[in-house]
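Report of the visiting student (M.T.), summer placement. My assignment was to run the structure pipeline on a short list of targets and document each run. The first record concerns Cytochrome P450.
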Amino acid sequence: YRLLKTCLLHISPGSCIPLDTIIALIFASILTSHLCFRLPYTRATIHEVQRVLNLIAFVVHCALEDCNFEGYDIPKGTVFLANMEDAMTDPKLWKNPDEFDPNNFLDDNGKYVKNGAFVPFGIGKRQCVGEALARMEVFVFLSSLFQKFTFTLVGEEVPPGNLYTFNAPVEFNAVAHVRPHL
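After the run finished, the structure tokens were exported:
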């Protein structure tokens, strides 16, 4: 629900989604997850929605045994908080960390670039076991929506800078319009 709302806030008829992406989506009779590799802007847009939304601000871990990390002794049972919010907005890691910008995931030639700081499903042993399935489902679901519909916001415009409260988009209304076949 939050993913869709965030997507609708940032993707509208006035957005600059490349024409080849829209055409590819319209003419693809059946959307599959394999299409994401041929649609780098769509893939980058979905990942940017996940980066901006960042559902989990902190991840809790616990040391299972005494260890040493970079000269620091860490006793067994020490609780760690991984700051996911910081990783998703670090200016050293992102081109435009404070804006919605799919170019955070694209190189100068428009090719998708993986960013190691993008870990919406966690990392390591405690990583979400359903990550591959979730990525496929999100791509097919959102691509199918934008293949068949255009969306417009209804009512007052959402003021910039006030898009999110507690990692959830502010309330707004949108209308889906059936996309005419070309």
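Helices lie at 2-10, 19-27, 40-53, 84-89, 131-148. The domain at 2-132+150-178 is CATH 1.10.630.10 (Cytochrome p450). I thank the supervising group for their guidance throughout the placement.
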